[in-house]
Design brief:
alpha+beta, 2 domains, 5 strands, five-stranded antiparallel β-sheet, Alpha-Beta Plaits, elongated
């Protein structure tokens, strides 16, 4: 297919792609705006060995994973709930908690999510405080040269909006809608692939020269022609409704993917 033919398809059916992208983006934006907001609070802990030798540094790296397990235990989260006076169970606390460590810089990151910004801050802050206190209690029982210190880099200042991310969802809806629109255009072009519209199309099929063409008449012949780039047996209104429906579905699908 020549470049000119691609251009003709874009001019004739480009409105389908644009319509699908716009409707999908609007759908994704609308759902994002009515969804409840979720906030995320983050606090970082730094783990430091008492002496800078290889053995204690390696032991510190090995302990990072066990620290994660300790912070995600029901006993420690229950203590954080009691101190912060939160109205939740440990299962609910753990479902909205994420603890990760980085052995390259000896840090532990605690992330807590909640529908309430203040609650997310309390969850992360109190859990970090309790863990630091327990490590200090443990260090008091061992020799100074063998201690592994854990301290907060900073206290939690605020919680950020974790979801819905309406900008991302709107963009994802538009992209996904445009893809669906492109599929519709491909399908329509496939339906008309065996129709000879111009003398150039005829020359591709037969080797004999084209000596003349019969002009289309009025009445039944005129009605038999394609309407706005569609085959005569397809109603343009039906195609429009079909494209809008698919675009809305694509927008909602993109929204779900964006929120995962």
């Amino acid at each position: 297919m020549e470049l000119r033919e691609y251009w003709n398809i874009a001019v004739k059916r480009g409105w389908i792609v644009i319509l699908a992208a716009v409707v999908a983006a609007v759908a994704a934006l609308g759902v994002s705006l009515i969804m409840p907001k979720t906030y995320e609070a983050t606090i970082q802990l730094i783990v430091e060995p008492a002496r800078p030798d290889w053995g204690l540094s390696q032991a510190t790296k090995d302990l990072l994973r066990s620290y994660e397990v300790s912070m995600k235990s029901h006993s420690m989260t229950q203590e954080a709930i009691d101190r912060a006076q939160l109205d939740m169970t440990t299962d609910q606390f753990l479902a909205d908690l994420d603890v990760s460590s980085d052995a390259s810089n000896l840090t532990i990151t605690i992330k807590a999510e909640s529908r309430s910004e203040a609650e997310a801050v309390l969850m992360a802050q109190y859990l970090a405080d309790i863990f630091v206190e327990k490590r200090e209690e443990w260090n008091d029982k061992i020799d100074i040269s063998d201690r592994i210190y854990v301290s907060k880099v900073d206290d939690v200042r605020y919680a950020v909006l974790a979801s819905p991310k309406w900008k991302f969802n709107t963009l994802a809806g538009a992209v996904f809608g445009a893809i669906v629109g492109g599929i519709i255009v491909f399908f329509l072009e496939w339906l008309e692939s065996d129709i000879l519209r111009t003398t150039a199309d005829l020359k591709k099929v037969v080797t004999a020269p084209v000596l003349g063409a019969i002009p289309l008449g009025s009445g039944s012949q005129a009605r038999a022609r394609s309407t706005r780039g569609l085959p005569s047996w397809i109603d343009p209104g039906f195609v429009l409704i079909f494209a809008v429906g698919l675009a809305i579905g694509a927008g909602l699908g993109a929204l779900v993917v964006g929120l995962l």
